[in-house]
Design goal:
Blueprint: H1 14-29, H2 36-43, H3 47-53, H4 58-81, H5 87-104, H6 114-120, H7 125-148, H8 153-177, H9 181-207
């Protein structure tokens, strides 16, 4: 057990290295294209340590990796959303941040769960559920920003779904085209969309 918990020079324990490595490999290649042997080799671990920390094996580790990716993306989303009080301007800040990070990764590090989400549908219910929780988490963060800025709850939650759906598609397109443009255009139009709802709400209040 002591060997399984040893830390490397970067200060990360074996469990954390396994999770982070799995998150990166799932992000790039998906669940089926991530062999266990490659995973433990790149994590600097052993098969024994994997099953020590994750008795359910690869699938249990994958669920933990999706949760890690969820939190990573959520942190970026929070940072972007907090860049401006105005939620419309915050939408552009989010897409600029995502575009910068994607380009810095040489267009490899897009959404941390999309590849696994698509291949898990109808086949791997635990992974599908973990991906669904990630999407719901991100939607909740956007909705909270809109609610804090005065949007009605139903409107905020519907807009949040649209925002995350748009970011997912734009990020994938930016990866494929190796260009920031799809993300930046998405941010511009999401900003206009959010502004139009804010204007509509203000107009309704004035009429009342």
């Amino acid at each position: 057990m002591a060997a399984a918990e040893v830390k490397t020079a970067d200060g990360l324990g074996t469990r954390e290295r396994l999770v982070r490595t799995a998150s990166r490999l799932l992000q790039h290649g998906g669940y089926e294209n991530t062999p266990v042997k490659q995973l433990v080799r790149e994590a600097g671990a052993t098969l024994g340590s994997l099953y020590h920390f994750f008795p359910g094996g690869k699938q249990e580790l994958a669920v933990a990796a999706i949760h890690f990716g969820d939190e990573e993306f959520a942190e970026a989303l929070r940072f972007g959303l907090s860049a401006h009080v105005d939620p419309a301007r915050a939408m552009e800040a989010v897409t600029e941040l995502l575009a910068e990070a994607l380009e810095a990764s040489e267009w490899r590090d897009g959404c941390p769960v999309t590849t696994t989400a698509l291949e898990s549908v109808g086949r791997l219910p635990e992974l599908q559920a973990a991906c669904a929780r990630a999407f719901a988490h991100w939607q909740e963060l956007v909705a909270a920003k809109l609610l804090a800025c005065g949007h009605p709850e139903a409107e905020a939650r519907e807009l949040a779904v649209t925002v995350i759906n748009t970011l997912e598609g734009a990020e994938m397109t930016s990866q494929v085209t190796r260009s920031r443009t799809p993300l930046l255009l998405a941010g511009r139009h999401l900003s206009r969309l959010v502004s139009s709802y804010a204007a509509g709400s203000a107009g309704s209040a004035a009429s009342a």
